[in-house]
Specification:
Elements lengths: L18 H11 L21 E5 L2 E4 L4 E4 L14 H12 L9 H13 L5 E5 L2 H16 L3 E5 L16 H5 L10 H4 L2 E4 L11 E6 L15 H12 L2 E5 L11 H6 L5 E4 L10 E5 L1 H4 L18 H13 L2 H21 L11 E2 L2 E2 L11 H9 L3 H10 L2 E2 L16 H19 L5
Parallel strand pairs: 3-13, 5-6, 5-7, 7-8, 8-9
Antiparallel strand pairs: 1-2, 2-3, 4-10, 9-10, 11-12
Helix pairs in contact: 2-10, 3-10, 11-14, 13-14
This protein binds pyridoxal-5'-phosphate.
Pyridoxal-5'-phosphate (PLP) binds next to helix 4.
Length: about 450
Protein backbone atom coordinates (compact mmCIF):
# COMPACT_ATOMS: atom_id res chain seq x y z
CA UNK A 1 0.00 0.00 0.00
CA UNK A 2 1.30 3.44 -0.86
CA UNK A 3 -1.16 5.63 1.01
CA UNK A 4 -0.92 6.32 4.69
CA UNK A 5 -3.90 4.79 6.45
CA UNK A 6 -5.40 8.14 7.43
CA UNK A 7 -5.34 9.58 3.94
CA UNK A 8 -8.78 10.23 2.48
CA UNK A 9 -9.72 9.45 -1.13
CA UNK A 10 -8.16 11.86 -3.55
CA UNK A 11 -6.36 13.43 -0.59
CA UNK A 12 -9.16 15.98 -0.30
CA UNK A 13 -8.70 17.20 3.23
CA UNK A 14 -12.35 18.10 3.76
CA UNK A 15 -13.54 14.55 3.07
CA UNK A 16 -14.39 12.13 5.88
CA UNK A 17 -11.44 9.85 6.58
CA UNK A 18 -13.19 6.99 8.36
CA UNK A 19 -15.74 4.52 7.06
CA UNK A 20 -18.15 5.52 9.83
CA UNK A 21 -17.90 9.26 9.08
CA UNK A 22 -18.19 8.74 5.33
CA UNK A 23 -21.18 6.44 5.72
CA UNK A 24 -22.88 8.91 8.08
CA UNK A 25 -22.37 11.70 5.53
CA UNK A 26 -23.58 9.46 2.70
CA UNK A 27 -26.76 8.65 4.58
CA UNK A 28 -27.62 12.37 4.50
CA UNK A 29 -27.70 12.55 0.71
CA UNK A 30 -27.97 8.95 -0.57
CA UNK A 31 -30.83 6.71 0.44
CA UNK A 32 -29.48 4.35 3.07
CA UNK A 33 -26.05 5.70 2.15
CA UNK A 34 -25.96 3.51 -0.96
CA UNK A 35 -27.00 3.27 -4.60
CA UNK A 36 -28.07 -0.35 -4.43
CA UNK A 37 -29.73 -1.74 -1.29
CA UNK A 38 -27.61 -4.84 -0.63
CA UNK A 39 -24.49 -2.67 -0.20
CA UNK A 40 -25.98 -1.10 2.95
CA UNK A 41 -25.12 -4.02 5.31
CA UNK A 42 -28.77 -4.06 6.42
CA UNK A 43 -28.93 -7.84 6.55
CA UNK A 44 -25.59 -8.30 8.34
CA UNK A 45 -25.53 -5.16 10.49
CA UNK A 46 -22.65 -2.74 10.97
CA UNK A 47 -21.07 -0.09 8.77
CA UNK A 48 -19.98 -0.75 5.19
CA UNK A 49 -16.34 -0.25 4.28
CA UNK A 50 -16.14 2.71 1.92
CA UNK A 51 -14.00 1.77 -1.05
CA UNK A 52 -11.11 3.95 -2.10
CA UNK A 53 -9.71 1.71 -4.82
CA UNK A 54 -9.23 -1.89 -5.84
CA UNK A 55 -6.58 -3.92 -7.62
CA UNK A 56 -6.66 -7.57 -8.65
CA UNK A 57 -8.10 -9.68 -5.83
CA UNK A 58 -8.03 -6.80 -3.35
CA UNK A 59 -10.27 -3.93 -2.42
CA UNK A 60 -8.97 -1.07 -0.23
CA UNK A 61 -11.15 1.09 1.96
CA UNK A 62 -10.63 4.76 2.78
CA UNK A 63 -9.02 3.82 6.11
CA UNK A 64 -6.32 1.93 4.20
CA UNK A 65 -7.56 -1.55 5.15
CA UNK A 66 -7.31 -4.17 2.43
CA UNK A 67 -9.66 -7.10 1.87
CA UNK A 68 -9.50 -10.11 -0.39
CA UNK A 69 -12.61 -9.35 -2.40
CA UNK A 70 -15.24 -11.96 -3.27
CA UNK A 71 -17.83 -9.33 -4.20
CA UNK A 72 -16.01 -8.19 -7.35
CA UNK A 73 -18.93 -5.91 -8.23
CA UNK A 74 -21.26 -8.96 -7.91
CA UNK A 75 -19.60 -10.65 -10.83
CA UNK A 76 -18.42 -8.27 -13.55
CA UNK A 77 -14.76 -8.08 -12.46
CA UNK A 78 -13.93 -11.65 -13.47
CA UNK A 79 -10.32 -10.70 -14.30
CA UNK A 80 -9.94 -9.04 -10.91
CA UNK A 81 -10.09 -5.30 -10.33
CA UNK A 82 -8.34 -2.79 -12.56
CA UNK A 83 -6.89 -5.37 -14.93
CA UNK A 84 -4.19 -3.58 -16.98
CA UNK A 85 -5.78 -4.54 -20.32
CA UNK A 86 -9.16 -3.20 -19.24
CA UNK A 87 -7.70 0.00 -17.81
CA UNK A 88 -5.69 0.56 -21.00
CA UNK A 89 -8.71 -0.09 -23.24
CA UNK A 90 -10.98 2.25 -21.28
CA UNK A 91 -8.31 4.97 -21.10
CA UNK A 92 -7.66 4.75 -24.80
CA UNK A 93 -11.38 4.89 -25.56
CA UNK A 94 -11.92 7.90 -23.27
CA UNK A 95 -9.35 9.89 -25.22
CA UNK A 96 -11.48 9.37 -28.34
CA UNK A 97 -14.68 10.62 -26.70
CA UNK A 98 -17.06 9.09 -24.19
CA UNK A 99 -20.34 8.88 -26.13
CA UNK A 100 -21.44 9.83 -29.64
CA UNK A 101 -25.02 8.89 -30.38
CA UNK A 102 -23.80 7.15 -33.54
CA UNK A 103 -22.65 3.59 -34.25
CA UNK A 104 -19.07 2.48 -33.55
CA UNK A 105 -16.68 -0.34 -34.37
CA UNK A 106 -16.53 -1.21 -30.67
CA UNK A 107 -20.21 -2.17 -30.69
CA UNK A 108 -19.66 -4.35 -33.73
CA UNK A 109 -16.66 -6.08 -32.17
CA UNK A 110 -18.29 -6.81 -28.80
CA UNK A 111 -21.48 -8.02 -30.53
CA UNK A 112 -19.40 -10.38 -32.68
CA UNK A 113 -17.59 -11.69 -29.61
CA UNK A 114 -20.84 -12.37 -27.73
CA UNK A 115 -22.73 -13.86 -30.67
CA UNK A 116 -19.73 -15.99 -31.64
CA UNK A 117 -19.66 -17.71 -28.26
CA UNK A 118 -23.26 -18.86 -27.99
CA UNK A 119 -24.82 -21.54 -30.17
CA UNK A 120 -28.16 -20.30 -31.54
CA UNK A 121 -27.61 -16.63 -30.71
CA UNK A 122 -27.51 -14.54 -33.90
CA UNK A 123 -28.14 -10.89 -33.00
CA UNK A 124 -28.00 -8.77 -29.91
CA UNK A 125 -28.96 -5.28 -28.74
CA UNK A 126 -26.77 -3.58 -26.14
CA UNK A 127 -28.31 -1.90 -23.11
CA UNK A 128 -26.72 -0.22 -20.09
CA UNK A 129 -27.68 -2.79 -17.42
CA UNK A 130 -28.84 -6.34 -16.88
CA UNK A 131 -32.17 -4.99 -15.71
CA UNK A 132 -32.75 -3.26 -19.03
CA UNK A 133 -31.70 -6.41 -20.87
CA UNK A 134 -34.21 -8.59 -18.99
CA UNK A 135 -36.96 -5.98 -19.27
CA UNK A 136 -36.43 -5.64 -23.01
CA UNK A 137 -36.25 -9.40 -23.51
CA UNK A 138 -39.67 -9.72 -21.85
CA UNK A 139 -41.09 -6.97 -24.03
CA UNK A 140 -39.66 -8.68 -27.10
CA UNK A 141 -41.14 -12.05 -26.14
CA UNK A 142 -44.54 -10.48 -25.60
CA UNK A 143 -44.24 -8.63 -28.92
CA UNK A 144 -43.27 -11.79 -30.79
CA UNK A 145 -45.93 -14.05 -29.30
CA UNK A 146 -48.72 -11.51 -28.93
CA UNK A 147 -49.30 -12.96 -25.43
CA UNK A 148 -48.99 -11.25 -22.05
CA UNK A 149 -48.41 -13.88 -19.38
CA UNK A 150 -44.87 -14.42 -18.09
CA UNK A 151 -43.53 -17.19 -15.90
CA UNK A 152 -40.61 -16.75 -13.52
CA UNK A 153 -39.17 -18.86 -10.73
CA UNK A 154 -39.18 -18.16 -7.01
CA UNK A 155 -35.76 -16.82 -5.97
CA UNK A 156 -34.60 -16.01 -9.51
CA UNK A 157 -33.57 -12.39 -9.96
CA UNK A 158 -33.97 -10.58 -13.25
CA UNK A 159 -33.15 -7.05 -12.19
CA UNK A 160 -35.56 -4.49 -10.78
CA UNK A 161 -38.05 -4.79 -13.63
CA UNK A 162 -41.54 -4.11 -12.20
CA UNK A 163 -43.14 -7.23 -13.63
CA UNK A 164 -40.26 -9.47 -12.52
CA UNK A 165 -39.77 -8.17 -9.00
CA UNK A 166 -42.05 -10.77 -7.46
CA UNK A 167 -40.20 -13.37 -5.33
CA UNK A 168 -36.90 -12.17 -6.71
CA UNK A 169 -34.22 -13.45 -4.33
CA UNK A 170 -30.99 -11.47 -3.89
CA UNK A 171 -31.31 -7.92 -2.56
CA UNK A 172 -35.09 -8.12 -2.61
CA UNK A 173 -35.05 -11.06 -0.23
CA UNK A 174 -32.33 -9.39 1.85
CA UNK A 175 -34.52 -6.41 2.54
CA UNK A 176 -37.26 -8.63 3.85
CA UNK A 177 -39.61 -7.42 1.14
CA UNK A 178 -41.79 -9.93 -0.64
CA UNK A 179 -41.65 -7.81 -3.75
CA UNK A 180 -41.73 -4.05 -3.84
CA UNK A 181 -44.03 -1.20 -2.97
CA UNK A 182 -44.80 0.89 -6.02
CA UNK A 183 -45.44 -2.13 -8.21
CA UNK A 184 -49.19 -2.16 -8.81
CA UNK A 185 -51.03 -5.45 -8.63
CA UNK A 186 -52.03 -4.90 -12.26
CA UNK A 187 -48.36 -4.93 -13.32
CA UNK A 188 -47.67 -8.33 -11.73
CA UNK A 189 -51.10 -9.73 -12.56
CA UNK A 190 -49.62 -11.43 -15.62
CA UNK A 191 -46.55 -12.74 -13.75
CA UNK A 192 -46.74 -16.32 -12.54
CA UNK A 193 -44.13 -17.30 -9.93
CA UNK A 194 -43.31 -21.01 -9.72
CA UNK A 195 -40.83 -23.06 -7.68
CA UNK A 196 -37.38 -23.49 -9.22
CA UNK A 197 -36.31 -26.93 -10.39
CA UNK A 198 -39.81 -28.22 -11.06
CA UNK A 199 -40.98 -28.31 -14.68
CA UNK A 200 -44.43 -26.70 -14.81
CA UNK A 201 -47.31 -27.56 -17.09
CA UNK A 202 -47.85 -24.35 -19.05
CA UNK A 203 -51.01 -22.85 -20.45
CA UNK A 204 -50.99 -21.69 -24.05
CA UNK A 205 -51.32 -18.03 -23.02
CA UNK A 206 -47.72 -17.89 -21.73
CA UNK A 207 -45.48 -15.51 -23.70
CA UNK A 208 -42.20 -16.35 -22.01
CA UNK A 209 -40.61 -18.45 -19.29
CA UNK A 210 -37.72 -16.52 -17.71
CA UNK A 211 -35.13 -18.56 -15.84
CA UNK A 212 -31.66 -18.26 -14.39
CA UNK A 213 -30.21 -21.42 -15.98
CA UNK A 214 -27.99 -21.80 -12.91
CA UNK A 215 -29.66 -19.83 -10.12
CA UNK A 216 -27.16 -17.48 -8.47
CA UNK A 217 -29.28 -14.94 -6.63
CA UNK A 218 -30.59 -17.25 -3.90
CA UNK A 219 -27.15 -18.55 -3.17
CA UNK A 220 -26.03 -21.03 -5.80
CA UNK A 221 -28.73 -23.50 -6.87
CA UNK A 222 -27.87 -25.68 -9.86
CA UNK A 223 -30.67 -26.87 -12.14
CA UNK A 224 -31.56 -30.49 -11.38
CA UNK A 225 -31.09 -32.89 -14.32
CA UNK A 226 -33.98 -32.49 -16.74
CA UNK A 227 -35.16 -29.09 -15.47
CA UNK A 228 -33.84 -26.94 -18.32
CA UNK A 229 -34.60 -29.66 -20.88
CA UNK A 230 -38.14 -29.89 -19.49
CA UNK A 231 -38.64 -26.13 -19.75
CA UNK A 232 -37.46 -26.24 -23.35
CA UNK A 233 -39.93 -29.02 -24.22
CA UNK A 234 -42.82 -27.39 -22.37
CA UNK A 235 -42.21 -24.00 -24.04
CA UNK A 236 -42.14 -25.72 -27.42
CA UNK A 237 -45.38 -27.55 -26.63
CA UNK A 238 -47.36 -24.35 -25.94
CA UNK A 239 -45.50 -21.93 -28.23
CA UNK A 240 -43.95 -19.89 -25.41
CA UNK A 241 -40.43 -18.47 -25.66
CA UNK A 242 -37.73 -19.61 -23.25
CA UNK A 243 -35.56 -16.80 -21.83
CA UNK A 244 -32.21 -17.61 -20.27
CA UNK A 245 -31.19 -14.80 -17.96
CA UNK A 246 -27.44 -15.19 -18.33
CA UNK A 247 -26.55 -11.93 -16.62
CA UNK A 248 -24.38 -13.93 -14.20
CA UNK A 249 -23.80 -17.20 -16.09
CA UNK A 250 -23.00 -15.45 -19.40
CA UNK A 251 -19.25 -15.67 -19.54
CA UNK A 252 -18.68 -16.54 -15.91
CA UNK A 253 -19.93 -20.12 -15.99
CA UNK A 254 -18.41 -21.22 -19.28
CA UNK A 255 -16.89 -19.89 -22.51
CA UNK A 256 -20.29 -20.42 -24.14
CA UNK A 257 -22.36 -19.48 -21.08
CA UNK A 258 -25.10 -21.66 -19.66
CA UNK A 259 -26.26 -22.48 -23.17
CA UNK A 260 -23.07 -24.34 -24.04
CA UNK A 261 -22.80 -25.69 -20.50
CA UNK A 262 -26.31 -27.18 -20.47
CA UNK A 263 -26.78 -27.99 -24.13
CA UNK A 264 -30.23 -26.39 -23.90
CA UNK A 265 -30.80 -23.50 -26.30
CA UNK A 266 -33.35 -20.85 -25.29
CA UNK A 267 -35.15 -18.49 -27.67
CA UNK A 268 -34.05 -15.28 -25.98
CA UNK A 269 -31.02 -14.37 -23.85
CA UNK A 270 -30.26 -11.59 -21.41
CA UNK A 271 -26.64 -10.69 -20.56
CA UNK A 272 -24.85 -8.20 -18.34
CA UNK A 273 -22.12 -8.08 -15.71
CA UNK A 274 -19.06 -9.82 -17.26
CA UNK A 275 -19.78 -8.58 -20.80
CA UNK A 276 -19.13 -5.02 -19.62
CA UNK A 277 -15.90 -5.87 -17.80
CA UNK A 278 -16.94 -3.63 -14.88
CA UNK A 279 -18.61 -0.88 -16.89
CA UNK A 280 -22.38 -0.53 -17.31
CA UNK A 281 -23.45 -2.96 -20.04
CA UNK A 282 -26.30 -5.34 -20.66
CA UNK A 283 -27.51 -7.01 -23.82
CA UNK A 284 -30.38 -9.12 -25.00
CA UNK A 285 -30.45 -11.27 -28.04
CA UNK A 286 -32.08 -14.06 -30.02
CA UNK A 287 -32.18 -15.54 -33.50
CA UNK A 288 -32.23 -13.15 -36.45
CA UNK A 289 -35.93 -13.93 -36.91
CA UNK A 290 -36.89 -13.05 -33.33
CA UNK A 291 -34.63 -9.98 -33.14
CA UNK A 292 -36.19 -8.62 -36.33
CA UNK A 293 -39.18 -7.69 -34.15
CA UNK A 294 -37.03 -5.01 -32.45
CA UNK A 295 -37.03 -1.40 -33.72
CA UNK A 296 -35.88 -0.20 -36.23
CA UNK A 297 -36.57 -3.53 -37.99
CA UNK A 298 -39.80 -4.28 -36.17
CA UNK A 299 -42.56 -3.01 -33.90
CA UNK A 300 -41.00 -3.62 -30.44
CA UNK A 301 -39.49 -0.32 -29.33
CA UNK A 302 -36.33 -0.16 -27.23
CA UNK A 303 -33.41 2.26 -27.22
CA UNK A 304 -30.89 4.07 -25.01
CA UNK A 305 -28.79 7.25 -25.08
CA UNK A 306 -25.76 5.51 -23.60
CA UNK A 307 -26.39 2.02 -25.04
CA UNK A 308 -23.26 0.63 -26.66
CA UNK A 309 -21.19 3.23 -24.83
CA UNK A 310 -17.64 3.32 -26.24
CA UNK A 311 -15.89 2.97 -22.86
CA UNK A 312 -18.11 0.09 -21.87
CA UNK A 313 -17.59 -1.65 -25.21
CA UNK A 314 -13.82 -1.29 -24.83
CA UNK A 315 -13.93 -2.82 -21.34
CA UNK A 316 -16.13 -5.67 -22.53
CA UNK A 317 -13.93 -6.47 -25.52
CA UNK A 318 -10.75 -6.42 -23.40
CA UNK A 319 -12.41 -8.73 -20.87
CA UNK A 320 -13.88 -11.27 -23.30
CA UNK A 321 -10.56 -11.40 -25.20
CA UNK A 322 -8.91 -12.75 -22.04
CA UNK A 323 -11.70 -15.22 -21.24
CA UNK A 324 -10.36 -18.19 -23.15
CA UNK A 325 -11.47 -21.76 -22.43
CA UNK A 326 -8.34 -22.19 -20.30
CA UNK A 327 -9.31 -19.14 -18.22
CA UNK A 328 -12.53 -20.96 -17.27
CA UNK A 329 -10.55 -24.07 -16.35
CA UNK A 330 -8.31 -21.93 -14.17
CA UNK A 331 -11.23 -20.20 -12.44
CA UNK A 332 -12.94 -23.55 -11.93
CA UNK A 333 -9.80 -24.91 -10.24
CA UNK A 334 -9.77 -21.92 -7.88
CA UNK A 335 -13.45 -22.43 -7.06
CA UNK A 336 -12.83 -26.15 -6.41
CA UNK A 337 -10.01 -25.31 -4.01
CA UNK A 338 -12.18 -22.79 -2.19
CA UNK A 339 -15.13 -25.18 -2.01
CA UNK A 340 -12.99 -27.96 -0.53
CA UNK A 341 -11.35 -25.56 1.93
CA UNK A 342 -14.61 -24.03 3.07
CA UNK A 343 -16.24 -27.44 3.53
CA UNK A 344 -13.21 -28.58 5.56
CA UNK A 345 -13.34 -25.41 7.70
CA UNK A 346 -16.87 -26.37 8.78
CA UNK A 347 -16.10 -30.05 9.39
CA UNK A 348 -15.88 -29.61 13.16
CA UNK A 349 -18.68 -27.03 13.38
CA UNK A 350 -21.97 -27.97 15.04
CA UNK A 351 -24.06 -27.14 11.97
CA UNK A 352 -24.14 -28.74 8.53
CA UNK A 353 -23.13 -26.74 5.48
CA UNK A 354 -23.47 -27.29 1.77
CA UNK A 355 -20.86 -25.83 -0.57
CA UNK A 356 -22.45 -26.05 -4.03
CA UNK A 357 -20.21 -25.42 -7.03
CA UNK A 358 -20.97 -25.34 -10.73
CA UNK A 359 -17.79 -24.77 -12.73
CA UNK A 360 -16.41 -21.46 -11.43
CA UNK A 361 -19.66 -20.61 -9.61
CA UNK A 362 -19.50 -21.14 -5.86
CA UNK A 363 -21.89 -20.68 -2.98
CA UNK A 364 -22.59 -22.02 0.48
CA UNK A 365 -25.62 -22.77 2.57
CA UNK A 366 -26.27 -23.64 6.18
CA UNK A 367 -28.24 -26.75 5.32
CA UNK A 368 -28.09 -30.49 5.86
CA UNK A 369 -29.16 -31.34 2.31
CA UNK A 370 -28.34 -29.81 -1.09
CA UNK A 371 -30.57 -26.78 -1.70
CA UNK A 372 -32.79 -27.06 -4.77
CA UNK A 373 -35.13 -24.08 -4.42
CA UNK A 374 -35.82 -20.81 -2.66
CA UNK A 375 -37.37 -22.58 0.32
CA UNK A 376 -34.02 -24.18 1.08
CA UNK A 377 -32.14 -20.95 0.42
CA UNK A 378 -34.43 -19.02 2.75
CA UNK A 379 -34.11 -21.62 5.52
CA UNK A 380 -30.32 -21.22 5.25
CA UNK A 381 -30.59 -17.42 5.43
CA UNK A 382 -33.00 -17.67 8.36
CA UNK A 383 -30.47 -19.74 10.33
CA UNK A 384 -28.89 -16.40 11.26
CA UNK A 385 -25.38 -17.84 10.87
CA UNK A 386 -24.40 -15.73 7.88
CA UNK A 387 -24.08 -12.35 9.63
CA UNK A 388 -21.60 -13.46 12.34
CA UNK A 389 -19.59 -15.40 9.76
CA UNK A 390 -19.56 -12.40 7.43
CA UNK A 391 -18.21 -10.11 10.15
CA UNK A 392 -15.69 -12.66 11.42
CA UNK A 393 -14.34 -12.98 7.87
CA UNK A 394 -14.31 -9.22 7.30
CA UNK A 395 -12.24 -8.80 10.49
CA UNK A 396 -9.83 -11.32 9.02
CA UNK A 397 -9.53 -9.40 5.75
CA UNK A 398 -11.99 -11.38 3.62
CA UNK A 399 -14.88 -9.51 1.99
CA UNK A 400 -17.91 -11.60 1.09
CA UNK A 401 -21.13 -10.02 -0.13
CA UNK A 402 -23.07 -8.53 2.81
CA UNK A 403 -26.09 -10.77 2.37
CA UNK A 404 -26.84 -14.49 2.63
CA UNK A 405 -28.41 -14.82 -0.82
CA UNK A 406 -25.31 -13.90 -2.82
CA UNK A 407 -22.72 -16.26 -4.23
CA UNK A 408 -18.94 -15.87 -4.00
CA UNK A 409 -17.15 -14.29 -6.93
CA UNK A 410 -13.49 -15.36 -7.03
CA UNK A 411 -11.62 -13.75 -9.92
CA UNK A 412 -8.73 -14.83 -12.09
CA UNK A 413 -6.56 -12.53 -9.96
CA UNK A 414 -7.15 -14.67 -6.85
CA UNK A 415 -3.90 -16.63 -6.57
CA UNK A 416 -2.70 -19.41 -4.26
CA UNK A 417 -1.83 -16.89 -1.57
CA UNK A 418 -5.28 -15.32 -1.53
CA UNK A 419 -7.07 -18.67 -1.64
CA UNK A 420 -4.95 -20.06 1.21
CA UNK A 421 -5.54 -16.92 3.26
CA UNK A 422 -9.28 -17.20 2.60
CA UNK A 423 -9.44 -20.84 3.71
CA UNK A 424 -7.36 -20.07 6.82
CA UNK A 425 -9.70 -17.19 7.64
CA UNK A 426 -12.75 -19.46 7.26
CA UNK A 427 -11.17 -22.07 9.56
CA UNK A 428 -10.24 -19.48 12.15
CA UNK A 429 -13.63 -17.74 11.95
CA UNK A 430 -15.56 -21.01 12.29
CA UNK A 431 -13.36 -22.12 15.20
CA UNK A 432 -13.84 -18.77 16.96
CA UNK A 433 -17.59 -18.63 16.38
CA UNK A 434 -18.57 -22.25 16.73
CA UNK A 435 -15.49 -24.12 17.94
CA UNK A 436 -15.50 -26.92 20.50
CA UNK A 437 -17.66 -26.25 23.52
CA UNK A 438 -19.70 -23.64 21.69
CA UNK A 439 -22.94 -23.86 19.82
C1 LIG B 1 -27.50 -8.76 -11.64
C2 LIG B 1 -28.58 -9.46 -12.35
C3 LIG B 1 -29.54 -8.79 -13.11
C4 LIG B 1 -29.63 -7.28 -13.13
O1 LIG B 1 -28.51 -6.67 -13.69
P1 LIG B 1 -28.20 -5.14 -13.32
O2 LIG B 1 -27.01 -4.82 -14.15
O3 LIG B 1 -27.96 -5.12 -11.84
O4 LIG B 1 -29.38 -4.34 -13.69
C5 LIG B 1 -30.44 -9.53 -13.84
N1 LIG B 1 -30.41 -10.87 -13.83
C6 LIG B 1 -29.51 -11.56 -13.11
C7 LIG B 1 -29.51 -13.04 -13.16
C8 LIG B 1 -28.58 -10.89 -12.32
O5 LIG B 1 -27.73 -11.57 -11.57
Amino acid sequence: MTESPAMAPGSMTDRPATNAAAFAASQEVLVGGVNSPVRSFRSVGGTPYIVDRAAGAYVYDIEGTDYIDYVQSYGPSILGHAHPDVVAAVTEAAHRGTSYGAPTLGELRLAELVVGRIPGLEMIRMTSSGTEAAMSAIRLARGVTGRTKIVKFDGNYHGHVDALLAAAGSGVANQGLSGSAGVPASVVADTVVLPYNRVPTLDDDVAVVAVEPVAANMGLVPPVPGFLEGLRAECDRVGALLLFDEVITGFRLDHGGATAWSGVTPDVWAFGKVIGGGLPVGAYGASREVMSFVAPLGPVYQGGTLSGNPLAMAAGIATLNLLTPSAYAELTAKAEQLAAGIAAAFSAAPMAVQVPRVGPLLGFFFAAQPVVDNGGATASADSGHYAPLFHALLERGIALAPGPYEIMFPSLAHGEKEIDRTIDAFSDAVETLWGSGRD
